[in-house]
Fold this sequence. Notes:
With 1038 residues, the chain is of the alpha+beta class. Among the domains are: 3-45 and 997-1037; 202-311, Immunoglobulin-like (Sandwich); 405-475; 481-552, Immunoglobulin-like, CATH 2.60.40; 631-769, no CATH class; 785-993, no CATH class. Helix content is 26%, strand content 37%. The strands form 15 sheets. Strands 52, 53, 54, 55, 57, 58 and 60 form a seven-stranded mixed β-sheet that branches. Helix 1 (3-39) packs antiparallel against helix 13 and helix 6 (794-802) packs antiparallel against helix 11. It starts with a helix and ends with a helix.
Amino acid sequence: MSKKRRITLIIVMILSLSMLASNLSGLVLAVQAADDFEEFGGDADLGTDGSFEEPSVPDMPSFDQPQQVEPDGPTPEELQRQAEEEAIRLAEEEAARKAQEEEIKRQAEAAAKEAEEEAKRQAEEAARAAEEEAARQEAFERAAREAEEAAKKQAEEEAAAEEAKRKAEEEAKRAAEEAEKAKKAAEEEAKRKAEESMDYAIRTQVDGGSISSIWLEAIVGEGDGLTFAAENVGSRDIDLIYGITGASANVFELSLISGSTALKIGGMDKFSINLDPAAPIGVYSCTIYLKDKNDDANRNTKYISVRAEVTGSPKITSVVVYPQYIKLAQGGSLAFTAYVNANIGQVEQDVNWNVSGASSAGTYITGDGVLNIDPKEKSGSLKVVATSVADPSRYAVASVTVQSNSYNVNAVANPQNGGIVTGGGAVAGGGSVTLSAIPNKNFYFDGWIRDGQKVSTATNYTINNVRSTITVQANFKQNYVTVTAVPENDQAGAVVGGGRITYGGRTTLSAMAYNGFVFTGWKEGGSVISNQPSIELNNLTVDRKIVAMFAKTSYTLTLSSYPSEGGSVSGSGTYKLGESATVQAKPAQGYKFQYWTVNDQVIGRDNTFKIDRIDRDYSLTAVFMKEDILTHKISSGVATTGGTIAPCGTSVVAHGANITYSITPKSGFAILAVAVDGVQVGPVSSYTFKEVWTDHVIAVAFVQTDAGAKAAVASGEKPQTRKVEKVLKSEAPAVSENHVVDIVDAASGSAGDEFVEEMDLTGIDIPTDEELGIVEEPAGEQNSGVLKKLGINMDEARMMIANGDSKSILESAFYEGVLDTYVENQFAPPAEVPDYHLMSREELEQLPVDYINPSMLNLSAVVEKLITPNEVLMIAGDSSATINISLRDADKTIDEKSKKLINQAVGQKPVKYFDFTMLKMVGGMPENVTELAVPMKVVIKIPDDVYKKGKTYSIIRNHNDEIDILPDLDDDPETITFATDRFSSYAIAETVASPKSIAIRFAIGALLSLIIALSCMLILMHHHVKMRRMKRAGRQIK
C-alpha cells in the first residue's frame, strides 16, 4: 500500500470518528427531546406515514481470504481456432432459421384454406335454419292473434258486468261517507265552539326579549321595580285578568301602566312590578299570572316567577393598599393606590394617607398617596398607611424597603382602571427589571410608553442596564363603552338605543311618550343636553347614562274649602302642561278668607291666586275664618338642620280651635326634640294645639344618625361635622303674618325648613342609633352575598376551606360577580359565545362551565388551585377577585435571546411567536403568576397566514431559558390544544421531524461512522501485518 493511500485511510478514520461523536451528541439531545415530547402526551413519531426507512449499511470488505492471482491471456492459435468455430456455428444457426420460416409459411396457407371452406359450410347451414324458423314463427303469430281476439271479446263482456257492480258499490260507499262526514263536522263544530274561549296565547317580554322570570334587588328602604309587556300573540281577542300569588305577594305591587284589559290580537299591555321600599332585609318571591277571564282551567295562563332580595346598607369590610410590598430607591417616589371594599355595593373610596418609620423630614406622603423619599433617608424600612375616611377603624399598611445605590422604575396604568401592572420599584445600578401588563375586562393592552415613545407592545417588557429613575406607562384602550338610556318614569314613556357601543363609535337614542305624556328632553348628570326626541351620540369614549324626561300632557287642579261652610272656590279642572291657572276663593256670609295652602303650607294670602305654569297635579285648600272672632298666632320653625315642620311660619288660629303640626325628618336624620313655648314635649312626629286660647311658639330639632352619616358618605355626600347642627336665627323676624312658601316647594314637601325658631338644647342627650331604634348588624355578623347564596355563615365558610372545599365558595363568588375571569386570547378559535359579563345570575348558572371560556378548557380547576385558602376566605367576605389571562401575538416584540433559544428546538420550525401571561388580583392586590399547580389546557387556532394543510404543528415553550415541546392534544388539524403550567414566551411550530425519528437517524449515522472508522482501522492493521511479514521473509532469504 502506498504512503498516500495510508494517509487517506487515516484521514477518513479521523473524520468518521468525528462524525461518530457529533451523531452521539445529537442522539443525546434527540432522546431528551423525545422524552419531553412524550411527557406532554406526544406520539412517538409524527411522520407522514408513521415509519422511517433505515439507510442500508454497505457490505464490509473481507480481510481473511488470500488474494487470487489473475491467469495469463490465450495464445494467437487458440484465438484463430475460436474464431473459426464461432463462424461455423453462426452459419448453421442461419440455415436452421430459414428452414423454420418456410415451414411456418406452409402451415399458415393450409390453415387459411381450411378456415375458408368451414366458413362457407356454416353460412349455408345458417341460411337454411333461418328459413325454417321464419315459417314456424308465422304459424305461431296467426294462432296467437286468433286466441287474443277471443279473449278480448270475453274480457269486454266481463268488464261491463264488473263496471255495473262497481258503480253500485261506489254509490253506496259515497252515501255512507257523506253521512259520516256530516256527523264529524257536527261534532268538531260543537268541540270548536266549546274550546273557542280557551284558544289564546300571551307572550311576556322586556325590551323585545321573552321572559319567564324576574329578579329584583334593593338596599333596604329603596325598593326596586321592572316594566314588562304582555302581548296577545294568539288568534282571538282576550278579556285579560292579572294578579300576584305567593306567600310574599304582599311586598310586591303589580300595576297596568298602559293598554287595556280588552287585549286585541297583536295588542300589547305594559305592566310594572315593584318591590315595597318598606320590605325588611330578606329574600322574597311571588308569581305573576296573566290569563283570559274565561280560562277557568288555567289552560293557557301565563306565569312569571318573581324573586327579590333586600340587603342591608353597604358596610366597609377592608382596605387594601397597592403595592403592598415594594423596594424604593433613596430620593425616589411612588404613587400608592388604595381600594376600600364593602360587603355589598359601593362605598366611598377616600382614604387618609400617612407614612411612619422615616428618619428624615424630607420623606413624606401626599394626600393623594404619592410617597416621596428623601435622598438622605437613613431608615431602611417605612410603613405607608391608608385609612378609610368613612370608617377610620378600617385601614391597610404597605411595607417599603428603602434601598441605596439604586434607581426607581415606576410602572403606571393608563387609564387606572384599564388593567393591572406589576413589576418596578428599586433596581440596583446596571440591573434589569421586567414589567407585566394585563388588561381588565372591556380593555386591551396598547403598549408601553417611555419618554413619550411607544417602546413595546409585548405584555412583558424588560428594561436592562437601569442607570436612572424611569417611569413607564402601560396604555390600555377600551373595547366598547356602555350607553345607558332610561326613562325618568317608565310609566310615562320608553327609550330605544344605547347599550354596548364600540369604543369611538356612535349610537342613536329615541324617546317615545305613552298616551297622556309628552317628551320634554334628555338629561345627563343633572343637565339638559337636548330637547329633541331623537339624538345621535358620536365618538363615544366613556360610559354615559342619559335620562329621558317626560311630563303628563294634562294635570288636575283640585280645590277645597276649610271649613267647608266657610266659602266657595272656583278654578279647578284639568289643565294642559305649561298652561297657567287662576283660582278664586269667595267667603260665605259671616266668614272671611285667610289664605291658600298646599300640604298645610301657606302659599298665598289673596283670595285670587295664579299658578304660572301647571307641571304637576295640585291640591289647594282655601282657609276661611269667621268674622269678628278672636284669633291667636302660632309661630313654628326648625332649630337645627335635618327636617321640616308643617305648617311653618306664622299661622292665625281662631280662639278655641285646634291646629296640628307635622314634623318630618329628612333621610338620615331623626327627631331630637320638640319644644312648645320653650318646654320640651319629647321627640314627637306631630303635635296638636287644642282649643287655642293664646299665642304659641313651636320649635323642632333634628339629629343626624350614624347610619345616615355613613349613607351620606356612600352616596358621595359629606356628612355633617356635628350630629346636631344649629340654625342661627337672624335679628329680623324670621316669620310674619304675611309669609308664604313657593307652591312647588310646598307640593314637593321640601318646604318647612326655611323658618327658624330657637330652642334651648342644653341638657338634651343625643341618642345613639340603637336608642333611636335603628339596629345595625355588626359587620362581622352580616353575611356577604357570596355566603348568602350558599346559605352559610363565615364560621362555616372557614370550616369548608379547612376541609379543602373551596370550589363551592368560588362558584358562588363567580355567580355573584365577586370573582371574575378575563381572557384575552388573540388566537382563540371562532365561537358563538355570549358575553357572560352581561348575563343575569340565573342565565350564568344554566351555562356550562366550559362554555364561559371555551379556549381555556379547565380554567375553573386552575383557578381553584391558584387561589390560596386565605384568599378564598377574603372572597367569601365579598372581597373582589380577578384573574386576567393574556395570550398575544409576539412576532414583533419577542426578545432576540428567547427567539434564538426557541429556534434551536429539535425538529421544529417556529412560524408564530406569542406571549402567555396571567395576573391574579384579590382584594386589590395584584400578583404576577409564573407557574401553576395544575396544567392549563389551552386551545388556539393556527393563523391562516402560517397554516399549511397536511402539516403537523406543536408548541414550543421557553421558560427561564428551558425549551419544551408541547404536542397537539386534539384531532383538528387547524387548531392546537396544549397543556402548560408556566407563563412565558411561546411559539407555534411546524413539526419537521419528531424527536424519536431524529434520534433514530442520529443512531444510524453514528453506527455508519463507527463502521467506516473500524474498516479504515482494519485495513491499516492488515497492511501493517503484511508489511511486517514481508520484512521478516526478506531477512530469512538473506
